[in-house]
Every structure is written in structure tokens, then in C-alpha cells.
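Posting this for the archive.
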Amino acid sequence: MLTKRIIPCLDIKNGRTVKGINFVDLRDAGDPVELAQRYADEGADELVFLDISATEEDRKTLADLVRRVAEKVNIPFTVGGGISSVKDVSTLLYNGADKVSVNSSAVKNPNLINELVAKFGSQCIVVAIDAKKIDGVWKVHLIGGKVPTEIELFQWAKEVEERGAGEILFTSMDHDGTKNGFANEALARLSDELNIPIIASGGAGVASHFADTFIEGKADAALAASVFHFKEIEIRELKNYLKAKNIAMRL
């Protein structure tokens, strides 16, 4: 049985870690380098770093900050934000990233996924999808959730897989920051329809939400931010709790 993964997420704006609710009302959550080291020490399986304003501000991800984080961690490290070319990915991998996450740029230019997979391999390419329900249909949103599209979540996820992406990071904008649990119905459908790992994001509030997303949502990994940043949930305790529920964990 494959072990499930616990992944803290560093949302970065102006060089600081921030966290909001439903993608707005951001508040400061600390220094990303210090947080990254803490999570590696606490037993996180991976770390995700998202430069959330890079695309909106039409600039590249903060490579220097990526390098400083990479120097402090010994776990797989995924970086996203403002990535739109092979050169961007090369720069981030050179500065210590293990994987990259593309979102808006992949929707605008789906061939980018094929190009990145051909150059770096599927295992290196994560496609992040931000979506919310509009009139009962999950619609993909761009630019940090600010721009709605008519693209339907499951249709886009299938195309992402067909183009060779190694993983999908699905964030429910409706659940983000609410601490009411993950979007398990949508996650389970993604897991049933696809053959690549699905990372659940958006909605973690208590330990049982992680168990629910692994069991009901069939997620391969669960990503969270504020509950870890503000020490509402401690990673090692969470993993022991999940293991006690017969969920395969790396301890």
C-alpha cells in the first residue's frame, strides 16, 4: 500500500508566508525559510512553495528565496508561481526545487505541459488546479483564483493527465481557509477518473479532516497551510493519529 503524504504549503507574497480565506484576506504567517526548516524537522513528507502573486504581478518566482528554502530541507520540494517556460523550470530546479507546479500558464497554453514533461519528466511536473462551484459546476479559475473560466474541472484534469503531468494539486476555492474539511466528493471523482496522484488542498481544520480526505476523498496526499503555520495541528501527532486509523503513513 502506498503511504499517504502530508504536505505543508508556503503561500508566499512579498517574501513572507501568508494565509487567507477563500483566496482573500491574507495575513502574515511567518518567515518561509524558518517554517520550511520546522516542517522538515517535524516529519512532513513534502513541502510546497507557491509564489501566489507572481502571475498576477507578471514576474518570475523568487529564485533566491527558493534556494534559501532548499538549503534548509531534506524532503521533496515543489515550487509554483509565475512559471511559463522551460527556462523558468530550469532556473527553479537549479536553485533546489525537486518539482514544479504550473497553473494559469498551463490553462492558457496546454502544450506547456507537454514541453515540460518532455524536458524534465512527468515526475517533475505538478499541475495545480484552483476551482470553485458555479451553478453546481466546478469551474477552473486563474491568476490566484481571481479570473473565472468556463473550463470544467474534471475535463481539464483529464487533459492534464493525458498531456503527461505527474500529479494534480486540486484546491477547492470554496473550502480554502474555512477549516470545514476538504472537497471530498470532487476529490473522490478525480481519483476515480484519473490514474495519477491527487493532492487535496483547501479546508483542513482538524485531524479528522485529513482522515476523511484519505478515506472518503481517496486523495493520495493532503496539503494544508494555516493549521500547520499557527501550530493548531502538529505534523507528527497528525501522522500518528492517521496511522492509528490504519492509514499508511511514513513515520
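The chain has a mean pLDDT of 91. Residues 141 and 148 are 4 Å apart (CA to CA).
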